[in-house]
UniProtKB/TrEMBL annotation, chain B:
UniProt GO molecular function: electron transfer activity; heme binding; metal ion binding
Cellular location(s): Cell inner membrane
Function: Membrane-anchoring subunit of succinate dehydrogenase (SDH).
Cofactor(s) the protein requires to work: heme
Lineage: Bacteria, Pseudomonadati, Pseudomonadota, Alphaproteobacteria, Sphingomonadales
Superkingdom: Bacteria
Protein name (Swiss-Prot/TrEMBL): Succinate dehydrogenase hydrophobic membrane anchor subunit
Membrane topology (UniProt): Multi-pass membrane protein
Subunit relationships: Part of an enzyme complex containing four subunits: a flavoprotein, an iron-sulfur protein, plus two membrane-anchoring proteins, SdhC and SdhD.
Presence of keyword Nucleus: no
Principal location listed in the UniProt entry: membrane
Amino acid sequence: MLVSILHRISGDGMAIVGLGVLLWWLGALAGGPDAYATFQSWMWADLAALEWSGAEIFYSIIKIILKIVVIGLSWAFFNHLCSGLRHFVLDVGAGYELDSNKMWSIASPIIAILLTAGFWATILYL
Amino acid sequence: MGNGTSLGKVRGLGSSHEGAHHWLVQRFTAIGNVVLTIWLVASIILLPDMAYGTWSEYLSGGVPATAMILLIICVFWHAHHGLQVLIEDYVHTPGNKFAALALVNLAAVGGAVAGIFFVARIVMTAQGDAAAEGALAELQNQMGAR
């Protein structure tokens, strides 16, 4: 049941939030270097450069939340991909034996977390 | 097939209306999404950074631009179907349900068209820049030759 709920949450989360970010990213690329700098300063802010005085505190908190949103979207992608591939197998009528069904319903979200961690490790450290 | 209960009358007939088509489109677009989103994630990993220059140059190429446009169509279509099912499962008041479905239709088509326009503009900006650079170089050549 958890895989099903996570599939819907990650899918609809990406549909509502992720596609907005995708459009902002493409729109910023289309808009030019200044627009792109604005996009980056919000969605992937330099944490060391955040200011913590006056109204800037409000913006800094939003920028930290947006960074968590980006990481959350990457998890949503890998989670939806894994449970989606599981759906393909179930759609052809395979994998309904209790033990294999249970095994993949547990493995799918765990593989998704490992892929998310691997994705960020590759980007940040390779 | 029974003719007593209402369930008995419809059992075995398959889904009514557009159900089967909706189900199939959700799968067809899912297959496309697997291919196209893995291309995008691989590009994010393999390109040196997320800088403006890197990505505007990459996406102005024919194959990446085509892939991105296909991704936009496929992903927005899939997202539309996913959100439609979400609404059909949780919004039961007829008026609210119609309004929510209308909003999802507009947002999905509008978002996809905007995304395709952005890719087209990225490509045309790169071509315009290249043409301007070429013209400038030619002008400098002519001035140097004089």
